[in-house]
Amino acid sequence: MRELVEVIAKALVEHPEEVVVTEKTVEDTLVVELRVAASDMGKVIGRQGRIAKAIRSVVKAASTRTDQKVSVDIVQD
Hints:
The protein has 77 residues and is of the alpha+beta class. The protein has one domain: 2-Layer Sandwich (GMP Synthetase, Chain A, domain 3), CATH 3.30.300. The chain is 39% helix and 27% strand. The mean pLDDT is 95.
């Protein structure tokens, strides 16, 4: 899942070198954390969160193969 989120995020932002995606497991959920440059935060979230919601939908669809619950968090430093 990390690679999927990373590819999507790098395609959206102006500074793809600053995209950092990490994975961690919390209980039975795989949490994917996405960090981008502060200037690119709006591009990743989108108007009214539409882009963020779309990223989460794609990851959820991809996670049905593994039968694991996946959560995508966009983290601001």
